[in-house]
Amino acid sequence: TFKQEELLTKTNFDELSNLDKKHIIHPVAVPKVHASVGPKIIFSEGKGVYVKDVHNRSYIDGVSMLWNVNVGHGRKELADVAHEQMMKMAYSSTFYGYGNEPAIRLAEKIASITPGDLNTIFYTSGGSESNDTAFKLSRFYWEQKGFKNKRKIISLRRGYHGVTVSAQRATGIDAFRNFSGSSDPDILNAKAHLTECELGDKSHPEFSGCIRSIIESEGAEHVAAVILEPIQGAGGVHLPPEGYLKAVRKLCDEFNILLIADEVICGFGRTGELFGVNNWEVVPDLMSIAKGITSGYSHLGGVVMNNRVADVIKEYDDVLPHGFTYSGHPTACAVGLKNIEIIENERLVENAHQMGAELEKGFNYLNEKHEIFTNQRNVGLLAGFDLMKDPDHNIPFEQSKQAAVSVVDECYKRGLLIRCFDFEPGMNIIAVAPPLTITKQEIEKTISILDDALASFSQKL
Ligand code: PMP
């Protein structure tokens, strides 16, 4: 249950809204609209899968905010551990070889739960920093091995890897990739979607845009690494075809290229396995993690690397000129450690698996009932579906209908926060990724709101 909060008066809300409009540029929002309308919601508290705004309206947090609040909102254990660490020593640096116990204990824990011999971590403060770090360490690895030209990084269309310059350039969503004309000439973005062409079929229609053809045309001696999300998130929840991840792993081995798995969304139980790659029994050479490592209670990320990579870096006999002020932040690491303990003790990975099955049942129901609902997919609690005008004939909605945006808005009015993707013509994708603590009843409520929202949108057509 929520705390009994004093309600903000309308005057208070207006004051906050005006201050926000005046002083904040919001990420991934339309600045001109924001500057006139102000914040859509001002959150005040959260408990479990529910969040509340300053008007005392409550919502189901259907995408765990930014797919990161895995253990749900309002966890006292995490507040307590942060409080305790802050009172002891809130912050200390890990530069110059300085250590702190939470960072050390968390590193050991991560090594024990990640697959294969991913045993060593470089800490960052989030996903973008993790990916930029993974690129740098991959290139550094090859440099140390005597391959100075192995520098290029191959990423996938619709992949999302963050907004620092190299991560931005690896992102396969044009608006993000091209924003502000940033460049990193060593990042190559595959033109193909997740396709079966990595399985080696050169006659596949998308072959010329796929990873293998890029390696062949660039020359493997120039390629350092391939990066991909086991399941693409912000590109619209795209699952890899069966056999794809294994094929890419094989491809990387064949051409002596490192494989980086971006587990920023998939990691820490989201997919009903501790890590996304576990669904396909693939072990990458480097793994980027963030988000679910602390469930958003503190900002933390990292690149976990296997012994092959770590051993080469550990041989370097000069100062490693890389690191963030908050690399190995003790409070963030203490929170991370407790967060993983919660995931384990409450069997949240298993719950994600089971509730994923419930969500799938709900989607089956929506699919039966609503003609526009199609292409449902999920792995655990990473789920999505498409809206189409006529799925049987593959006819998308006209852009002017704003189908996905409208359905998300109908959900919002009914107390469900979800997210949509419509960055390509005809694309109307909706993502659902609630906290891993969600119950069957809460899934049913989510489906019931979606049901009403879809009906209301269809009626208005
Ligand atoms: N990788 C993936 C797969 C992500 O989803 C995100 C964030 N949505 C990032 C990287 C970037 O993480 P951050 O926003 O913490 O920099």
TrEMBL record:
The keyword Calcium does not apply. Signal peptide: none annotated. It holds the Pfam family Aminotran_3. Transmembrane segments: none annotated. PROSITE patterns: AA_TRANSFER_CLASS_3. InterPro entries: Aminotrans_3, Aminotrans_3_PPA_site, PyrdxlP-dep_Trfase, PyrdxlP-dep_Trfase_major, PyrdxlP-dep_Trfase_small. The keyword Transferase applies. GO terms for molecular function: transaminase activity. Keywords: Aminotransferase, Pyridoxal phosphate, Transferase. Belongs to the class-III pyridoxal-phosphate-dependent aminotransferase family. This is Aspartate aminotransferase family protein. It comes from Metabacillus endolithicus.
